[in-house]
Amino acid sequence: MWYRDPHERRAHNRRRDSGRQAILLVNARMSDQRKQRMHRAGALVIWTVVLAGAAWFSLVGVRWLGARLFSENPRFIIRHLALQSDGKLRPEHLRQFAGVSEGMNLFAVDVRAVRQELQAVPLISSVEVTRKLPDTLVIHVSERTPAARLGAQVTTYPLAVDHEGYVLGPTSVSPDLPAITGFRERGLKPGSKVADVNVLDALRLIDACDAPKFSRLIKLQAVDVSQTDYITVVLERGERVLLNRAGFEPKLEKLCEMLKRAADIGKAIATVDLTVEKNFPVQYQP
User: Which pLDDT belongs to residue 46?
Assistant: First the structure.
């Protein structure tokens, strides 16, 4: 039989036991680490729940307190509506568009929503909504100013347009406004904005003619933009004037001189071509 020395066998057993103890120690440490991680994760979950609950209760408390102090406080019931416009809109129109009335709570009114509702009205350009404690809501609107009427049959009802190209409804149309004709854009309606560059050219010309140094002599009746190279203007006495699409001011100064000269000699201009640089062709009315 194979024989092992007793001392060698005991040493071998000690090494084997030592290895087992090392493995058991490693397993115990890993188990402890897992338990620690689980404890930390559990604590984190608990703190998250606690913090979320505290935040929710704080929010509910703030809302409850805010309602008690403001939006449900009878002290802030609206008793006065200060509704103002710089144009033709009356207070009853603004009241209807804004959806506000006496008896509502001043802080329950959504100021931003009121402003959006009013700015959706085609005639309105800008809106100011303010609370005046303890019981007054102030609304002031600035209306768009019509610059011209759209003479083309773009819709079944007449339309106007302001200086920025925003389309206004029939209530803004006046026969005293110059008519813009000859453009091709369709589908225009109150609240939309004109995209046709021909109409925008006409509006720039109308703005230029509104300057004090020109408006006394130049009274526009119609602006025809049907031609691609020039604009045809009809004045109040029937004068037809051809103008370039840019650089209006020098030609308008020349037109004022010609209108003055025609008046001095007791005549009226029939047509004048201001698209050339000099020697402007002029015909007088018989």
Answer: 73
